[in-house]
Design goal:
150 residues, alpha+beta, Signal recognition particle alu RNA binding heterodimer, srp9/1, three-stranded antiparallel beta sheet
Length: 150
Amino acid sequence: MESDCRIPMACLRPRVLALHALFWGLVSLRVFGAALLSEEKSAVTKSVTMPCWQLEEFVVATECTLCNAFQTKTEVACRQTGYVERINCTKSNKDELKSCRSATMEEHLFWKFEGAVLGLTVIFALVVVARQRSLDRQASEKVRRQIESI
């Protein structure tokens, strides 16, 4: 009689089981070891590469303003949104630039989005009306043909 076991009996030998355990143990050790090493490295590099406003409290010295052409080319913070605010970190007492989103820029983007949605609404409404007229025409033509055939 055939067994319902899907694992071949050769895989259940102690030597094969020990090799599997050793292999998966090494794989998991490598994965978890790499994760631990990356956490240690990121903790060391975080304090070096991260701006002070991500690590400590800060005060906004200058509100969000539009970057000029020179700042846009030279400052990394200006490249992201085109607007920047000057901040002062409290613990380290550093002045840095931080990218920000302006209220006027947000309002402009909002109205562009609203205009696009309104335009798409009009276009799809016209498509629906045209399709409905086409279907009405086809239905009336079908009824006319049925009446003529009688």
